[in-house]
Amino acid sequence: MVKANLDHVTIVLKGPKFPGNVGSTARCAMNMGISKMIVVGNRDLDDDEVRQMATHVAKEIVNGIRHVDTLDEALAGFSWVVGTTSRQGSGRGPVVSPRRMAEILVGLSQENEIALLFGPEDKGLTNDDLRFCQTLVTIPTVGFKSLNLSHAVMVVCYELLIARMENDGGYAPKLAGTKELEGMYAQLKETLLAIGFLLPDNPDYWMMHLRRLFARTTLLAREVKILRGICRQIAWYGDHKERKNS
To answer: Is the pLDDT of residue 90 over 90?
Structure first.
């Protein structure tokens, strides 16, 4: 029976405002069996307050927090990114519940590094942040939608823990990493602009739809290479035809 591999799961906090929330998140992670955290930006958080809220239970997680300056750097080593959002709309794409997210990640977590991405307490993740994500999660609430950061982390991680204990999600092979995918998307955007498929005044609108399309296909590394090879061939053909006609 395949169970979620929590060793392949990392909590990523983008721009947290309050050190107490970082400490509480570390404690929640420890409770739910997740041992890795990355903090993006805001290196000025009071370390004593972080440790006070984490308590001695999560000391090892706090000691192991990796601090980076950009989201690109934080997510470069992951093959699947789960973004959390309380806001919905056509610009954000379809969302799933934490329970459905956990079912999806059971198989994926066997061979792939997975990031659980949470935004700052006041604004959450932006649309630009969400472009990295293959899965978007919204936690159902009654009335007020906003949750404390550590509470949101606890809910998402709890569902993963339950999935580890109970669910069989099948097996997924190793997927292309975020760095590989971002390289592919940049090359694809350049190619589609060159052939006139994307409008130069707003190319990112259609690129977001293409990102969602490819996110549903769980691209392997070799498949990304094939797509990039197609882009290179299109570029070569365009240059060759232009030289031939000149």
So the answer is: no
